[in-house]
Amino acid sequence: MASLINKWLFFPLLSLFLVSASPVPHPFHVSVVEINHNSQEKTLEISCKIFTDDFEKILAKNYAAKVDLINPPDKAAMDSLVKKYLMSHLSIASDGKPVRLNYLGFEHEKEAVFGYIEVENIPHVQKMAVSTNLMYDQFEDQVNIIHVIVNGNRKSTKLNFPETDAEIIFSQ
After folding, report:
1. Radius of gyration (Cα) for the chain, nearest Å?
2. What is the pTM of this model?
3. What is the pLDDT of residues 35-59, one digit of tens each?
4. Which entry of 1, 27, 98, 145 is 20 to 30 Å from 52 by CA?
5. 149 assigned to some structural domain
6. CA 13 to CA 157: how far, in whole Å?
7. Domain encompassing residue 63
């Protein structure tokens, strides 16, 4: 009788363990692009935050590569994939002029990957145009949130799939 009770307890506990050990899918697909104007350095400091599991899937699909952003066996190879993806899915214009994005690198933190980009020689910002389709090639329910900070003034907007373009205006 004791072995029968143990079997009845074992299978529910095993099921609970397997469910809790697998990655929990999130019910929404969102990325965040934050652009901070550093007036002292005359730069735009940009971070792109994307859920790690989603990002790994799209990089693997788009570039036919084995992707591990959490514990990359070859950090330079992963860095190259992240750069290629971000640089082809994000563009910015400041005060009506397209800017040159300089990819700095990425890091993994908790459930997200942060990609870092910098733009040099931006003395001031009155208008920022952002075009992004991050993760649109993976999810039709994707939302991209954009935060732009100029002189401590933060303005935000969101783009729902398939919207790609946002314009944020700061009065000087």
Report:
1. 21
2. 0.83
3. 999 999 999 999 999 999 999 999 9
4. 98
5. yes
6. 45
7. 28-169
